Amino acid sequence: MPDGRTGGSARAFELLEPLVRAATVRVHAAPGGYDSAGTGPTWGSGFFIAPGWVLTCAHVVGEGGAGVRLAGREVGISFFPGGDTTTTGTVAGRVECVLPERLEERRPGRRALWDLPDLALVRVLAPVTHACVWLTDRARPRLDEAAYFGCTEELGIREITGRTTRLRGLAAGGAAIRLGDDDEIEAGMSGGPVVDLTRGEVVGVVKARRHAGGGGLAVSVSQLRTLPLAATGQTGLYRRVMQAHDLYHYDRHLSDLDSRRTWTDVHDLLPAGEPDPYPDPYGGRGRLTPGERTTLCGLLAELPPPGSSEAVRELAEQARGEEPDATLPAPLSWRDGLGLLHDPPGAGGEAAAMLRYATGVSVADHREPPAPGADEELWDWVRTTAERLWRPLRRELAERHERGLAERERRRRLAAGQAALGRARRPAGRPAGPTVLLEAWAHGWEDVYDWRVSVLAGPARPGRVTPVAAGVRATLAGLPDALRAPLAEGFRRCDTHEAAAVLEVAVAPELFGLAVDEWAVSGGVPVGVQRPVVFRHPDGTGSPAAAGRWARVQAGPLLDQRADCSRGRPRSPSPAWLEGLADTTVPVLCRDPAAEPTLGALHSVRDAGYGVAVCRRPPADPGASCAPFHRGLREELAEAGRGAVLPQRLQALRRRAYGADPDAYWAAGVALVWEDPSRALPEDEPLQGDL
Questions:
Q1: Rounded to whole angstroms, how far apart are CA atoms 686 and 374?
Q2: How much is the pTM?
C-alpha cells in the first residue's frame, strides 16, 4: 500500500483484494484451435460482472485498428476458475456490444482517447466457473479512497495486481471518474475494475492514464445503463445482466457449500467509514445490513423486470420522500431504484426508505406474471426485516401493502372488464404515459439552435417536466449527433414493456420539415421506425375552439382536406374557409413547411384550432406530383377512422417503407402535427447565453 493510506483503507484493501483479483481477467486474442494457453500479447483487462459476462473497455477489444469490427468479434479471456488465484483458465468470448454504438462507424486515431463511455460487454462462449464482482447501485460514486486492478507484467511476470488511489472528481457529466496520481496506471490495466474501499463495491472501469505522471480516468459503471434499448416486449441486455449479477451474489450468500468469503461477508467486515451526515432515528439501525441488502437484491431479481424506468422512479420518489435527482442515468432495474434511496432527506433513514420501496415493488403490476409466490416472498421479507425497526414503521408498511393490493386488484378488474366488453381489441391509441420532449429555438438571427430534451409526464401529472439535457448553438446538420445521447436517455426513462414512448418535437413550424424521424438514436434504426414522432407548435394551438375540435377528431370519422394546394397548385387557405370545415377534418399540407404558402398555412391551421394536421418534407424531385401522397393519405385516414391512432399508424407506414414496401413509399417525409391539449408544454425558453 502506498504511504498516506489510512488504516481503514489498508484493511479494506486487504479484505477486498482476493475477491477483486479472482474476478478480474486478462483480455487478449482469441485462442486458436486447440491452443488454450492464451499466451499472446495482453490487450487489456476486464472483469466478470455476472456469470458468463465480462465488462471491459471498447478500446481494449478494439485492438488491431479501425478495420476491426467490434460487435461480434471473438476475444480471449484468461481468468481464475472458481476464484482460485493460483491457477488460470482461458476461454473464448464474443463482444456482444460496445458503447457508444457510433464506435462501429467512427473511431479515434492512434493514441487518441476513445469516446465515452468506451465500454464493451463480452459474452463468454463456454460454461465456466468463475467469480464475479459486486457492482455499485449508485448512479454516481462517492469521492472516497479506492483501488484499481488489472493485468501487469512487472519484472516479466504477468499477473493481476491492485493499487490504491483516491477518486478525485467526476467528468463528462458524471460519466467519467478522475483517479488520483498516487500510482501509475500501466497500459494492461485498461478495462480493469475500480473499487470503492469504503463501501466495497466496483464503481468504475479503468480507461486511460495521464501521459505525464500518475493517475488517469475511469468510466462510471452506471454507464452500463446506456446499453442499446430492447425491442418492445423483450427484456433488455442491461436488465438481464444485472438480474444475473444479483442472483449470483444472492445464491453465494445463501450457500453452505463454499467456505470462502463472499462479497457479503466482506461488506460485514469493512471498517466503518465517515460518520453518517444524516441523523439515524433508529439508533444505529437505520441502514440495511450487508446480508439484508444482498437478500433484497436477490428477491427483487427474482421478479419480472420493471415495465419502465418511470415506474422505478415513481416508487423511489414515494419511498424517499422527494423527487430523485433527474440528472442521473435512468434507473432500468428494480435494483437501480435502491441506488436512488441512499442518504434520504428524512422519513426514517435509508433502511426505512428501502423497505417502503420494496413494499411498493411487491404490489406492483408486473409486466408478466412473477414466479409463484415471488412477490409474497418479498413482502414476507420486508415484514420480517421491519421487526428490528420501530413499530410505527411496521404499521405504515402494512398499510402501504394493503392499499397497494387493493389498487392492483382494482386495476386488474378494470382491465378484465374492458376486455370482456371488447374494448381491448380496438386498435390502441398513443400511450398514456410520459413522452420525450425535444425543443429547439433559433439562436437570434444566426443559423444555429439551442435545444432541450425533457420528459413530459402528461395527464397523470399535469405540468410536470423533468429535464434530461440541454445545449446551445447547434447547427441543423449537427443536431442529430448532439441529440443522440440525450434522446436515448429520454427513451430509456419513458419506454415501457408494452410500447415505445412518443417523441414530441416542439419547434417553430418552419422546422416541421426537420428529418427527426430519420435520425438514428439506437441500433442504427431510424427513430421514426422505432416509435411515434409528432411535431408541436412551441406556443400550442391558437383558438378557443381547439379543445372541442381536438376531441371530435380523436373520435372520428376522419376527413382529409388539402390546405396548401389545389390540384397541385399552391394556395393559401383563408381563416374563414378553415373555420368552416367539418370538425373531424385533418388539414393536409404537401409543400415545404419552411416556404410560403405552406408556412403561413401552418399558422392559419393552428389559429383555426386544428390540433391534428399532416405535412411532409418536399420530395427530392421538385417536379414530382403530390397526387400519390394525397391519395395514400386519404386511404390511411379512412382506414384509421379516428385521430387517436394516427401516431401509431404513421409509425407503421415508416416501418413498411424502411422494410422496402413500395406501397408505402408515398409516405416518405410525412410529419404529424399533434397538439394534445392535455400535455402542456413548458413555458420557459433556454437562455441565449451571456449578455
A1: 47
A2: 0.86
